UniProtKB/TrEMBL annotation:
This is tRNA (Adenosine(37)-N6)-threonylcarbamoyltransferase complex dimerization subunit type 1 TsaB. Keywords: Transferase. InterPro entries: ATPase_NBD (IPR043129), Gcp-like_dom (IPR000905), T6A_TsaB (IPR022496). It comes from the Bacteria. One of its GO terms (molecular function) is transferase activity. GO terms for biological process: tRNA threonylcarbamoyladenosine modification. Residues 82-184 form the Gcp-like domain. The gene is tsaB. The lineage of its organism: Bacteria, Pseudomonadati, Caldisericota/Cryosericota group, Candidatus Cryosericota, Candidatus Cryosericia. Signal peptide: none annotated.
């Protein structure tokens, strides 16, 4: 897509689709084509992985090759929608790569913040559509579990691993995993629970990886000494965790991939209707 005619077409499409542009194929292409500059770099033979997480209050964009993180940039929820593309630009420059070097995009698709999840998904889908690279996704809880597991001490890696995420309104997203052959494997589907989530974790024990601070835990549920749970707080998806969680993931269609919500849209915006 080059020249004034294509630029005009992009502008026209983006204006006509407004906030629904992420669902339009033309606008997907235009958004990324007009937002990311052409970057000079050294080819790594299309072996790089572009990692994107905007689903949590502390997000991250990174570039990896194999299990090595080449570059990364942190994101904060308040400014994520305005800085993701710039962060992608920045990590590509730092790693001396271009989008042509990206083999696959790994998206953390949620659950998490409504706007953040949609921003990350829209940008990942746009890049995948506009460039010849694959798109895979992992859930936020998978990425949290892996991130905590990779940084945990050896004495807590043999038991269950729990991933917890603040769902707001005194609720938490929670999922149980197990460690098998050095890999973190899901034991049950993710659910949204009230403060009883902490009792559920204590009933089983293990490593609890929490993508929030201790202040988010209800006072009656805060960790005590000599528990059978190793609590780890402020553990947000890391580049290494996202990459590990994506091992074996199937390719996604950029036209059909949607963010993952464990609540309906009405619940997210405090309009009580039956869950979808």
């Amino acid at each position: 897509m080059n020249g004034p005619e294509d630029s005009s077409r992009c502008t026209s499409v983006l204006r006509s689709t407004s906030k629904s542009w992420a669902k339009k194929s033309d606008a997907l292409f235009c958004a990324i084509s007009t937002s990311l500059p052409l970057l000079r770099g050294v080819s790594v033979s299309r072996q790089a992985f572009l990692l994107i997480n905007t689903a949590t209050v502390s997000g991250i964009v990174g570039l990896a090759r194999g299990d090595e993180v080449l570059a990364q940039a942190s994101l904060q929820l308040a400014t994520a929608s305005n800085t993701v593309v710039a962060a992608v630009d920045r990590v590509l420059v730092e790693a001396r790569c271009t989008l042509d070097d990206v083999r696959s995009i790994v998206l953390v698709k949620g659950p998490g913040t409504f706007t953040g999840s949609r921003v990350g998904a829209s940008i990942a889908k746009a890049i995948a559509y506009a460039t010849p690279c694959s798109l895979v996704s992992v859930t936020t809880l998978e990425a949290v579990a892996w991130s905590g597991f990779l940084t945990s001490t050896p004495n807590v890696t043999g038991g269950p691993v729990w991933a917890l995420l603040d769902a707001r309104r005194h609720e938490f997203y929670v999922q149980e995993f197990a460690v098998r052959g050095g890999a973190v494997v899901s034991q049950a589907d993710a659910v949204c629970m009230g403060p009883g989530a902490f009792d559920a974790v204590r009933d089983v024990g293990g490593l609890a990886v929490c993508a929030f601070s201790p202040a988010a835990v209800p006072e009656s549920q805060r960790p005590q000494e000599y528990e059978n749970v190793a609590w780890s707080f402020n553990e947000y998806p890391s580049c290494a965790g996202i990459l590990a969680a994506s091992a074996g993931a199937c390719n996604e269609d950029p036209f059909t991939l949607e963010p993952l919500y464990l609540r309906s849209t009405e619940e997210l915006f405090d309009h009580p209707k039956a869950a979808l």
